[in-house]
Automatic annotation (TrEMBL):
PROSITE patterns: ABC_TRANSPORTER_1, ABC_TRANSPORTER_2
Entry keyword annotation includes Transport: yes
GO CC, alphabetical: ATP-binding cassette (ABC) transporter complex
CDD domains: ABC_cobalt_CbiO_domain1
Keywords: ATP-binding, Nucleotide-binding, Transport
Annotated protein name in UniProt: Cobalt/nickel transport system ATP-binding protein
Signal peptide: none
InterPro entries: AAA+_ATPase (IPR003593), ABC_transporter-like_ATP-bd (IPR003439), ABC_transporter-like_CS (IPR017871), ABC_transpr_CbiO/EcfA_su (IPR015856), ECF_ABC_transporter_ATP-bd (IPR050095), P-loop_NTPase (IPR027417)
Organism: Rhodovulum adriaticum
Pfam families: ABC_tran
Gene3D superfamilies: P-loop containing nucleotide triphosphate hydrolases
Family as reported in the entry's similarity comment: Belongs to the ABC transporter superfamily.
Domain ABC transporter: from-to ranges: 4-217
GO terms, molecular function: ATP binding; ATP hydrolysis activity; ATPase-coupled transmembrane transporter activity
């Protein structure tokens, strides 16, 4: 049974021309799927539809074996599929890095001590312990990206949805991100303009073009 199955998704922002016009994708267990496409093609929109932050005008979203329609259906989806937003400022809102990372586990019912231990473990795995006490909004763009990934990994999602994860990363950190992502067991959908990065992480690549997803060639 696929983790995600999107079928004939149509979507327009109110008052705007349609962006998605029959888009479909299947994400199987363990699969790493890349999505590329021009600026404004609708890639971020598609990720938001996958976790129910936007509702398609037509088409179906099935996740973890069930068709999901109502907002309540997506609570479980958002627990099991972690979306790393393109803009870290959409995701980071606590005063310090540790608090931001502990927030998700606390929300999932962990005790304060457990949540702090998880935060420390994720910071160690990502080699970010030096940022532990930093004020989130004063981090650099690249540091914010890595901390955003940490907040999502702390929730131990079964699927990772990554929107332009290499944005704002220098070469060393981009290379480290490749190592981190390659070592993770989760299935992933990776939105990226970076051809080399896509090839390193996700052998299967789709292109969003004119509202539909087609296998990427070449
Ligand atoms: N809330 C909104 N209201 C109206 N239009 C929107 C809204 N959010 C996004 N759009 C428009 O929808 C289109 C698709 O946006 P989206 O962010 O999904 O594209 P993308 O493929 O992720 O682009 P990029 O590669 O630049 O990140 C764009 O033209 C964008 O301007």
């Amino acid at each position: 049974m696929p983790l995600f199955e999107l079928d004939h998704i149509h979507f327009a922002y109110p008052g705007h021309a349609p962006i998605l016009r029959g888009a479909g994708l299947t994400l199987e267990a363990g699969q790493r799927l890349a999505i590329t496409g021009a600026n404004g093609a609708g890639k971020s929109t598609l990720l938001r539809i996958m976790v129910g932050l936007l509702v398609p005008d037509r088409g179906t979203v099935a996740a973890f074996g069930q068709v999901r329609r109502a907002e309540a259906d997506f609570h479980e989806v958002r627990r099991r599929a972690g979306l790393v937003f393109q803009d870290p400022d959409d995701q980071l809102f606590c005063p310090t890095v540790t608090e931001d990372i502990a927030f998700g586990p606390l929300n999932l019912g962990k005790s304060r001590d457990e949540a702090l231990a998880i935060a420390e473990d994720v910071l160690t795995r990502l080699d970010l312990t030096h940022l532990r006490e930093r004020v989130t909004y004063k981090l650099s763009g690249g540091e914010k990206r890595l901390v955003t990934l940490a907040t999502v990994l702390a929730m131990e999602p079964e699927v990772l949805l990554l929107d332009e994860p290499t944005n704002a990363l220098d070469e060393d950190n981009a290379a480290r991100l490749v190592e981190i992502l390659t070592a993770l067991p989760q299935a992933m959908v990776l939105v990226s303009h970076d051809t080399r990065f896509r090839a390193q992480i996700a052998p299967d690549s789709l292109r969003l073009n004119e509202g539909r997803l087609c296998p990427e060639t070449g």
